[in-house]
Amino acid sequence: MKTKIISIIVAILFFSSCQESFLQRDSLSQLSEGSFWANETDATTGVNAIYNALRELNNNMCLYGMLDDFSDISYQTWATGMTTGQYVAYGSFFSYPWAVLYKGIYRANTAITRIPDIDMNEGTKLRLIGEAKFLRALFYFKLWDYFGGVPIYDKPMNYDEAYKARNTADEVVAFILKDLTDAIECLPGSYSGNDLGRATKWAAMSLRGKTYLYAERWGEAADDFDYVIKNSDRELHPEYYQIFNYKWEGNKEVIFDVQYIKISGFGNTCDYYYGNRNTQVGGIQRTVPTSILVDSYEMADGTPFSWDNFKTIDGQSFNPNNSADWAKEDLVKQIFNKRDPRLQQTILVPWAEFVGKSNNTLIYKWPTKASDPKCFIPNFSAVYAWKKFVHQGEDNDDRYNSPNNIPVIRFADVLLMYAEAKNEESGPDQSVYDAVNRVRARVSMPAIPQGTQAEVRERIRHERKVEFPGEGLWYSDIRRWRIGVDLCNHVVKGFIGNSLRTRGFAEREYLWAIPSSEIDLNPNLTQNPGWE
């Protein structure tokens, strides 16, 4: 914890005069050309500042996980154009991540350029350069994921030099892979003490495998993931729900995460956006899991959940569109009990318990009863609520500064990415089943049956949907699989069938718009199809 306080605060103080826009960098340029990069302390502080761009990116985009709100598994209670297919290229949704990612790239370029000339311990020098290259690769990976081909800058640029045209997507991929290959050679496998949380060779190899995967270079992706699985010290954390609570941060499952502390300005806003009015901090429940996600969780025996199987419960009829039937506690509990355990570790469902403010145990009774002090009341009508990333009781009393770290890559992701790459390369073999079943076994779900390549593909995709909701991975998945248009054009409904919003996903949204503000500044930039 102490190292996070020191590194983040020093980084902020050092770079406090930076501007948001990628093109407005005069003060940072002057700092980098001055006397700062003189010794090992300066080098470490400069690299710490690169990590801080990850925190800034997360907060500017509300949270990485809230990107799932633009998919079928969750939605934003505040209407935005990205949930309706009506967004435009102007505005902060696209310009914020573009600016912050390039800010991080600028800092990484400065470190990579300046550190080799510093008289310092050679081992530390090599490691810091490796960290900078890993982070630069991560920033470019996100730019590629969101925007496709983007301008590649590999050294600190002055204002009048930052007018490059877009590189091709293939050129960006090659640049990312080169940085990660270099980083793998420079980085250690683990850290201890105050260096916990820094990038490791396993983080670099996992991200390189992910880059291969997104580029559909299946064999190379499978090789990298297989090496991490067999040779790293990473493993699944025994309890799924604990991964998303600061009390268990630094566990063996986390390969790389964004670090946070409970200090004003240095925490994340999970409790504010994911949380609800019943929490200690009074969240606004901006993001809500959908009925589509809840219905995706299998029965405990591995069979698909179907409402057809619950038309009659204990001899009584049940109609999910009849609000009065949801008041039948014993019947409702049978719908959600004996399901994949990840369901109720991720989502608060009707008639489940939640420890709210003042450590009061509440029950999500439906219909809700405002007069009942023990009744959990959601911020919106007939919706599910997140438990993932939300503190219960008095674990956190600052809704703007949650201390939870946000996972970027965890071992479960590596296992499922390995299974996907191997299945796409050559069809399912025992290693594919082993990887998927290892994730399922952690929550006592039965092994998947053997099947064709297409059948196993769907099983892997299902597993990603229920393992990573609210973490932002599914949104990237449906875009790279190009299934967003099929999944995301429908009316979003609450659990009693009430219409909440009309969801939209246009073909153009497989890539984001290049921010119009950036095109105005740099006429060499071209727009993505459909956003002109």
Describe the overall structure:
This protein is mainly α. Among the domains are: 2-59 and 84-263 and 515-521, Serine Threonine Protein Phosphatase 5, Tetratricopeptide repeat (Alpha Horseshoe); 270-386, no CATH class. It has helices at 2-14, 26-33, 40-60, 81-84, 92-114, 122-147, 169-186, 201-214, 218-231, 270-273, 291-296, 329-336, 342-346, 411-426, 430-441, 453-467, 473-480, 484-487, 516-521, and strands spanning 74-76, 254-258, 287-289, 312-313, 316-317, 347-348, 353-355, 361-363, 385-386, 406-410, 491-493, 499-502. A two-stranded antiparallel sheet has the order 1-3. A two-stranded antiparallel sheet has the order 2-10. Strand 11 and strand 12 form a beta hairpin.
* Helix content, binned percent: 40-55%
* Named CATH topology of the domain at 2-59 and 84-263 and 515-521: Serine Threonine Protein Phosphatase 5, Tetratricopeptide repeat
The geometry reads as globular
What does the main sheet amount to? 2 strands, antiparallel
| Annotated CATH architecture of the domain at 2-59 and 84-263 and 515-521 | Alpha Horseshoe
Distance between the termini: 46 Å
Strand order of the biggest β-sheet: 1-3
What is the averaged pLDDT score?
90
User: What is the CATH domain class of the domain at 2-59 and 84-263 and 515-521?
Assistant: Mainly Alpha
Total strands: 12
Class computed from helices, strands and strand pairing: mainly alpha
Give me the number of helical elements.
19
Whole-angstrom Rg: 23 Å
